[in-house]
Recover the amino acids of this structure.
């Protein structure tokens, strides 16, 4: 990928309508220059995942995404064996020649199913590897990632060590639902993405929705800022802000509460905002 300057990162991301401040662009630039994974933390909806998507889309790199979840293991993340094809091959060998299929062939690349991490290592072209919501995975999986993140290689018992053909740009996201281990953090650069200011969020809305009137963009962003100042179960992210503005355009109205369900997804939150008149005067 090889960006020449921090400004290149900002321009690249902005070409895909992602407005990155200098601090975030600096972190991306260093992750690319130093071939070191970048750990992005922040509240849900601030745009962590979108960084990886925008980088891949704007540069033409392949985006490979590993969505983490509770119980994820190496067979879902790295590789697995195609047991059905192995069984068919065994039966074919027995039927055709009356012999057994050698174990070395059964556990060769012929029957290997590559998962996201292995695909990222073996991809010849530029790759952005997104390891999304790593805080949802358990401790064992986090430990498994250490070899990959430190050396860009993995060990498959039947095949040996697989090294990266080219270092992928690795973006790891966490919503901080739990604290990550220090060992993982030491292998990464770190950046915290906060909610944008209302002024910056207006710029984001206008970048994503060029046809939105300035007045609508300003009112939606002010409304979102008020909502984020409340003690709600689920605060609206940047995506909800954009969708709220898009909804008003689709409805042909400037009544924010008419499309409040675009921004808030919990009934109690909607009731509280209406009862307390949080959006009055916006």
């Amino acid at each position: 990928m090889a960006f020449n300057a921090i400004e290149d990162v900002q321009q690249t991301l902005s070409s895909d309508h992602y407005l990155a401040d200098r601090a975030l662009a600096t972190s991306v630039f260093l992750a690319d220059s130093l071939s070191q994974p970048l750990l992005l933390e922040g509240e849900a909806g601030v745009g962590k995942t979108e960084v990886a998507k925008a980088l891949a889309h704007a540069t033409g790199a392949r985006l490979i995404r590993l969505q983490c979840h509770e119980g994820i293991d190496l067979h879902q993340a790295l590789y697995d064996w195609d047991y059905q094809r192995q069984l068919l091959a065994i039966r074919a060998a027995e039927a055709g020649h009356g012999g057994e299929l050698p174990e070395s062939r059964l556990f060769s690349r012929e029957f290997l199913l590559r998962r996201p991490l292995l695909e990222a290592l073996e991809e010849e072209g530029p790759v952005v590897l997104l390891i999304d919501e790593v805080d949802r995975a358990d401790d064992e999986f986090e430990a498994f990632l250490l070899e990959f993140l430190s050396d860009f290689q993995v060990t498959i018992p039947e095949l040996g060590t697989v090294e990266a053909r080219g270092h992928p740009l690795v973006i790891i996201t966490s919503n901080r639902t739990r604290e990550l281990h220090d060992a993982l953090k030491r292998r990464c650069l770190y950046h915290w993405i906060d909610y944008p200011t209302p002024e910056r969020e207006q710029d984001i809305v206008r970048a994503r929705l060029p046809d939105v009137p300035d007045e609508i963009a300003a009112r939606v962003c002010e409304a979102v800022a008020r909502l984020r100042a409340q003690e709600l179960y689920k605060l609206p992210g940047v995506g909800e802000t954009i969708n709220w503005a898009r909804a008003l355009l689709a409805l042909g109205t400037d009544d924010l509460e008419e499309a409040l369900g675009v921004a808030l997804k919990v009934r109690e939150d909607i009731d509280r905002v209406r009862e307390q008149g949080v959006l009055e005067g916006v």
About this structure: The chain has a mean pLDDT of 93. The two ends are 44 Å apart (CA to CA).
